[in-house]
Amino acid sequence: MEQRIGLLGCGTVGGGVIELMRRRKQRLQSLTGWEPVIARVLVRDVLKERTVSFAEDVLTDDPDTVLGDESIRIIIETIGGIEPARTFILAAIARGKHVITANKDLIALCGEEILAAADAAGVTVLYEAAVGGAIPLIRPLQESLTANAISDLKGIVNGTTNYILSQMTETGADFSDVLQEAQDLGYAESDPSSDVDGLDAARKLTILASIAFYTRVSLSDVEVTGIRKITARDIAYAHELGAVIKLLAVGTERDGALTLHVRPTLIPKSHPLAHVSGSYNALFVRGDAAGDLMFFGRGAGALPRP
Fold it and tell me: Domain locations in the chain?
């Protein structure tokens, strides 16, 4: 039996979703009993050339063609940003559709509203890929570690800044030179402010901390410092101290008081996070029952690069 799916957006992430779904179609069908079918894809320009092909009439620039299709039960949002993604997701929920999104900005800023609407409508909103790409972080915090009182979150959750700092460490190059290299390779946007100024990591921290510490965290609760002022000399000094510099997103709870910050941090080379290089992400979690855990993997892009 078909499971008809509506896809919002068909850029890098949307194209990756389609590619992976087509590649794993038979496996998904054998595991679930449903045949996943991308029935409609909402795009800005239906005539634009794309890396994936579609049957006639699948592409549309009319949101209601997707959201108003009663045969579609699942919406996958890959547009990014706040609007119109928020409006589309709330409209899908109101029409009884389940939603999957990797939109960290939307979940960080509007997650409470969206999840409340989903609860009221009796549908599910899944957002595992909003933090850490394909690294399983959300579900373990929500389900696997519920018997734990988590006291510490400490992570490298932005691949762009980790690539820049790793290259500065390995080559001794200056920030501006490595940033240009990261842009040329597609690791950094033409406007890298969200990454290098720490805002991307801060938004991801609000999502993780809200789940791990059972409280509503806002972006304004996070103290944020980026990496623009890190110099080759800073990297050299860190090496002399037996440490490396990483942009860490940190959440700690002590006696009911929650502290949240994103900042460049000296990490001893003996710590596991010191060895997370390139565009990889990692999250270190400390629970009173499980002890210390670390999740590791690639955290950005449509699919992992070789």
Answer: 2-130, 148-298
Please, what's the b/e burial string for 13-34 (b: 16 or more CB within 10 A of its CB; e: otherwise)?
Answer: bbbbbbeebeeeeeebeeeeee
What pLDDT sits at residue 133?
A: 80
Query: Order of strands, edge to edge, in the sheet holding 257-268?
Result: 223-224, 257-268, 243-254, 150-156, 280-287, 291-298
Six-digit token pair at 83? 């609007």
Q: Residue 249 has what pLDDT? A: 98
Residue 101: count other Cβ atoms within 10 Å of its Cβ: 25
The answer to whether 303 and 139 are in contact (CB under 8 A) is: no
Distance CA 223, CA 226 (A): 10
Looking at 25, 204, 229, 269, which residue is catalytic? 204
Distance between CA 42 and CA 63 in Å, rounded? 6
From residue 229, alpha-carbon distances to 48, 232, 274 in Å are 40, 10, 20
Structure tokens at 72: 């579609």
CATH topology of domain 148-298: Dihydrodipicolinate Reductase; domain 2 (3.30.360)
Give residue 252's pLDDT.
97
| Max Cα–Cα distance, the chain, nearest Å | 63
CB 81 within 8 A of CB 106: yes
- Enter the pTM of the model: 0.89
What residues of the chain score a pLDDT lower than 50? 302-303, 305-306
The architecture that CATH gives domain 2-130 is 3-Layer(aba) Sandwich (3.40)
* Spatial distance between the Cα atoms of 64 and 41, rounded to a whole number of angstroms: 11
- β-pairing, 243-254 vs 150-156, is antiparallel
Q: Is 204 designated active site?
A: yes
